[in-house]
Design goal:
It holds the Pfam family Sugar_tr. By secondary structure, the chain is mostly helical. The protein is about 80% helix and about 0% strand. It is globular and about 70 Å long.
Length: about 325
């Protein structure tokens, strides 16, 4: 839905290219879905799990009954009862410091936060925010042409994301992440090389189209893998009591990196050139492959308890006579 919304925004912006006060209309139209969401949020119920934990059981059951029918409804209520019992037994309060003090939680957060950082530092915010400007720098000077070609890039992003939904449980998280980063690296080689050549006096139309091809390839490889992967993995790798805290911290890492990249890119391009800027992203993608190989476990087919055991194995070692869950997951995939 995120990538579909981005695609729709490009469609609307392209339609407004010939309207007087173009950029003002673009910003104005963007307020409409925000207002709609604000209104609809008033009718959104609280999380059933949160209600149950606050002993508002009747309200929780009421929300669940709108989603599930019997016997699934009874199963969901039983799960909430079990979670509530676990909550009562655990008197320890989760602290931010525990994330870094406990070795297994620290390892999980380094993986989750690292994936979120990689997603942004490898350049997706730059590609999506500045693709019209990048296309103009590649030789397509018309605003309308730049927005139209950006529309194609955004459409590829939405389509390839749908592909990722089908692939993630087939090939596994780690394989998909590595495939995605490898393709992004190759695409950035194409982008950085062509943009470097154009920036040094070889401004041919052919090189411009090759740069567009590199841009499209980047999106096609990014969207099925490194687009959804950090969010999916972060929902799977933390113990229950740390899931909300670590998930929020890793999301913060994502948006901090997004701000850094989106606010610094044009200044970096002015200072060193477009081709050289893409070379920096190329280096990040190459390093990220190493990060995924060594620090990201395969979580396909594992329960939350089994994932927790994977981190315990990495933090404290394992019995050499027992094959690790991570190894079993790799074999099964």
């Amino acid at each position: 839905m995120v990538t579909a919304g981005q695609f729709l925004s490009y469609v609307i912006n392209f339609g407004l290219t010939r309207v007087p006060g173009t950029w003002r209309w673009m910003l104005g139209v963007a307020s409409l879905p925000a207002v709609l969401q604000f209104v609809l949020m008033a009718f959104l119920p609280e999380s059933p799990r949160w209600l149950y934990m606050k002993n508002r059981k009747e309200e929780a059951v009421g929300v669940l009954s709108k989603i599930y029918s019997s016997p699934r409804l009874e199963d969901e209520i039983a799960i909430l009862e079990e979670l509530l019992e676990q909550e009562r037994k655990s008197e320890a309060k989760v602290k931010y410091s525990d994330v870094f003090r406990k070795k297994e939680i620290r390892s999980a957060f380094i993986c989750g936060g690292g994936l979120q950082a990689i997603q942004q530092l490898s350049g997706i915010s730059i590609i999506m925010y500045y693709s019209p400007i990048i296309i103009q720098m590649a030789g397509f000077r018309s605003n309308e042409s730049a927005l139209f070609l950006s529309l194609i890039v955004s459409g590829m992003n939405a389509a390839a994301t749908i592909l990722g939904i089908y692939l993630i449980d087939i090939v596994g998280r780690k394989v998909l992440a590595l495939s995605s980063l490898s393709g992004m690296t190759v695409s950035l080689v194409v982008l950085s090389t062509t943009c470097y050549l154009m920036g040094h006096g070889n401004a041919s139309q052919t090189l411009g189209w090759i740069a567009i091809l590199g841009l499209v390839l980047y999106i096609l490889f990014y969207a099925p893998g490194m687009g959804p992967m950090p969010w999916i993995v972060n929902s799977e790798i933390y113990p229950q009591e740390y899931r909300g805290l670590c998930g929020g911290m890793s999301a913060t890492v994502n948006w901090i990196c997004s701000v850094i990249m989106s606010t610094s890119f044009l200044s970096v391009v002015d200072a060193i050139g477009l081709g050289q800027s893409f070379m920096i992203l190329l280096g990040v993608s190459a390093i990220s492959i190493v990060f995924v190989i060594f620090l990201m476990p395969e979580t396909k087919g594992l329960t939350f308890e089994e994932v927790a055991n994977v981190w315990n194995e990495r933090a404290h070692g394992k019995d050499k006579n027992v094959q690790s869950l991570a190894e079993n997951a790799a074999l099964s995939s």
